[in-house]
Amino acid sequence: MILCRTMNTTLTFSFMLITGVLIAQPPSAFAQQPPQQPNQQPNPQGGRGGGGRGGGAGGGGRAQSPASQARPKPVEKQTFSPELIRAGEVRFGSQCGFCHGKDATGGESGTDLTRSDVVAKDVGGSTIGPVVHEGRPTQGMPAFKDLPKADLDAIIAFVHTQMDKFAELGGNRRQVDASDLLTGNAEAGRAYFNGAGKCSTCHSPTGDLAGIGKRQTGLALLQRLLYPGGGRGGGGNSQPKATFLLNTGQTVIAPVAAEDEFSVTVLDPMGARQTYQKSAIKVKIDDPLSTHFDLLGKYTDADMHNVYAYLESLK
Questions:
Q1: Alpha carbons 176 and 179: distance in angstroms, whole number
Q2: Is the residue at 37 inside a domain?
């Protein structure tokens, strides 16, 4: 619902056009093929979307797992210095890891870049560079127009190295046992939770996290720690909202679908996306998960595993 507020009244509108420019958004280049209809054959080159949640494998109506499909092969073998790869790992983790996973194998809202045709076809940033600079607003990927070339080169080196690394594994499907993740120190995790991480500002081991170690384990618990919004699909109060201030003095509040430094995309009452330039309007974004986003760029491996061990102990 979009609300229009004046000084003393609140009115409900079925739709309101906010002053701004609607941006035509190109399809994501990182994303694979769109979901197939139940009676269609899946595209064998698709990644996460190739099988699709609605796609049918052999007409059977079951989604085809990306792990069952062949990985795209790089068009050219490329090598990078260890220093560049390490720099790229740090930069990727802070800027891209929330959506694409810290190891580039995919997250809740981002594709597995180790299976991406864009990465496979890239030579010296030829295909990755444009995607990073232009973004993919319809897929929730912001544009990084001002990203320094040195940072971009480092990210490209890391992504290519990850693609080569996972291509060399013995199988496509990887599994992680809960015991594989339980390498941290629970007491150190509790200290971080109550101290540097400031987790206790919003969460409590006797409140919302009581018994979390019984309810979730392994990757599910780690996902809860790192990606608490569940890709924004879990509902609740995690949906960010945009408040627009109009020239009339009214304010319009709408749920945010995507945002970058130049534009914001909101959902109208019918669920359709509307994108507006920030230069044309005054807008404030209220995101309940902003603190979690900030922490993703600050976590060390020790921090993550220590907090994980602490949460796992809450039974």
A1: 8
A2: yes
Amino acid at 135: G
For residues 144-168, one letter each, b for 16 or more C-beta atoms within 10 angstroms of the residue's C-beta and e for the rest, the string is: beeeeeebbbbbbbbbbbbbeebee
Non-local (6+) Cβ contacts of 305 within 8 A are: 181, 182, 183, 184, 189
In tens, the pLDDT along 37-77 reads: 444 444 444 433 433 333 343 444 444 445 556 788 899 99
**Lookup: tokens for 302:** 């020790």
Can you state the percent helix, strand and coil of the chain, rounding each to 5?
A: 35, 10, 50
Please indicate, yes or no, whether residues 58 and 135 belong to a single structural domain of this protein.
Answer: no
Residues 298 and 211 reside in one and the same domain:
yes
Domains held by the chain: number = 4
CA–CA separation, 182 vs 219, rounded Å? 11
**Which tokens in the block code for residue 178?**
């809960």
| Averaged pLDDT for residues 216-231 | 79
Domain that holds residue 90: 82-167
Tokens of 256: 């945010």
For residues 190 and 300, membership in a common domain is answered with yes
**Residue 35 confidence (pLDDT) above 50:** no
Per-residue pLDDT reduced to its tens digit, 98-112: 888 889 988 767 888
Residue 168 reports pLDDT greater than 80: yes
User: How far is residue 98 from each of residues 71, 77, 110, 290, 293, measured CA to CA in Å?
Assistant: 23, 28, 8, 12, 7
| 115 lies in the same domain as 146 | yes
Reduced to 3 states (helix: H, G, I; strand: E, B; else coil), residue 14 is: coil
Q: Look up the pTM and report it.
A: 0.40
Tokens of 140: 């929730």
pLDDT band at 271 (very low <50, low <70, confident <90, very high): confident
Mean pLDDT across the chain? 76
Give CA torsion, residues 89, 94, 96, 97, to 10 deg. Answer: 80
- How far is residue 94's CA from residue 297's CA, in Å, rounded to a whole number? 4
